[in-house]
Amino acid sequence: MKKVITYGTFDLLHYGHIHLLKRAKSLGDYLIVALSTNEFNNLKGKQCFFEYKERKKLLEAIRYVDLVIPEENWEQKVNDIKEYKIDIFTMGNDWMGKFDYLQEYCEVIYLPRTPEISSTMIKKKLNGLKSD
Ligand code: C2G
Q1: Which domains does the chain have, with CATH numbers?
Q2: Which residue in the list 44, 57, 82, 124 is annotated as catalytic?
Q3: What does the pLDDT read at residue 130?
Q4: Which of 80, 95, 117, 121, when mutated, tests ligand 1's pocket best, judged by the most ligand atoms within 8 Å of its CB?
Q5: Potential cystine with 41: which of 46, 50, 83, 108 (Cβ 3.0-4.6 Å)?
């Protein structure tokens, strides 16, 4: 069984996330998503709309996702890869090159980002809408 892992915040889940998860799953047979905790998002300087438990529930409802684990820091990736016997690490290519050091432990694949959609853009557009 080929195991794949990916990391992220996945706030305000949108079709860009789903497209990433669908392609990540197609790289193997089992997909683990390491989901950034609220505390780690603070470290990343990301303000989340949904709490960790809501973001986790949404991800667990996606057919491509087999397991959701917490992402608590930048350093856990090597341990995760060893502990879960990961064959492939994958991320959107906005991270191109940033995780090449993991090639020592598993295959590293960067997938093209889906253009024109992001949680930040959704927030901006919603702020611009008149709420009735
Ligand atoms: N993504 C994408 N297309 C978009 C938006 C996001 O392919 N339009 C991908 C990102 O490249 C990432 C994943 O979806 O692989 C999750 O995106 P974010 O929640 O923004 O993740 P990020 O904050 O980049 O966290 O340790 C790694 C970090 O936790 C990554």
Answers
A1: 3-129 (3.40.50.620)
A2: 44
A3: 74
A4: 95
A5: 46
- For the question of residue 85 being annotated catalytic, the response is no
Residues 101-119: tens digit of each pLDDT: 999 999 999 999 999 999 9
* Global pTM value: 0.96
Atom 21, ligand 1: which residue's CA is nearest?
Answer: 8
- In one-letter notation, the amino acid at residue 33 is V
56 catalytic? Reply is: no
| pLDDT surpasses 80 at 12 | yes
